[in-house]
């Protein structure tokens, strides 16, 4: 299957580290040293997970005339920060694009949901139940975040991205989705308690950040190596690595583990913070203009729970 196009939406409000210095005394230098985050985006009044998803979808469709909305026959939405758990972001997007009577699915597997959504598309395509799919990932982290939490309150940002995926190639510049591999590691470490968001408590907390860091580094490197090996590739064959955008130190650790040069990594952490399952998609969208024929890209992700995955793409 093929990734035809993707685009994203970011709220206009920028929250710098100075905000947290004023709020709880965390200095810009302290935050930068530990996370690599300089600023992040925050949804404004009237914005939420669904509205951001709709705007990302509109932008993507506007930039892809070969993939008109009326040809969409599957919508898969992903988020762990829902605005509405019944009228999900996928339903909101379906209403906005006005395509009736097609499969509409919303999933949540924390920050790795992007790749699980792509796998769902893969399954529908394989069963002959769809041929043109829209995947939408959106996070409204600031709706649940406690900014006064000195352990994790400064990490989160908001944003959304939309991907158009087809069973057949639509344009010579389409990226072939060569392989997708995902898994769950809920039996490892402090997986079920390290990061939690209980909507009834409106709390996004990370009491065991060190455990998250350790397993994120291990699993993103491992699954990247596995997907390369089963496609007979080495690190020399990979042009870009797009990791989950959680922490610059995690990205650096994964690069070192894989023995990849620093210039291979795509990062938007510094300007966006952790945008959840939208982060890697935003990074991929920004990388598209640099891709040349023969370039291979690996997207590797890790989320609370612990969930993980990797996707291999080729131009």
Automatic annotation (TrEMBL):
Tagged with keyword Transferase: yes
Keywords for this protein: Acyltransferase, Transferase
Family matches, as InterPro entries: ACP_syn_III_C (IPR013747), ACP_syn_III_N (IPR013751), Thiolase-like (IPR016039)
Pfam families: ACP_syn_III, ACP_syn_III_C
SUPFAM superfamilies, A to Z: Thiolase-like
Beta-ketoacyl-[acyl-carrier-protein] synthase III N-terminal domain span: 107-182
GO biological process: fatty acid biosynthetic process; secondary metabolite biosynthetic process
GO molecular function annotation: 3-oxoacyl-[acyl-carrier-protein] synthase activity
Residue span(s) of domain Beta-ketoacyl-[acyl-carrier-protein] synthase III C-terminal: 228-314
UniProt cross-references to Gene3D superfamilies, sorted A to Z: 3.40.47.10
CDD domains the record matches: KAS_III
Name used for this protein in its record: Ketoacyl-ACP synthase III
UniProt organism field: Hymenobacter lutimineralis
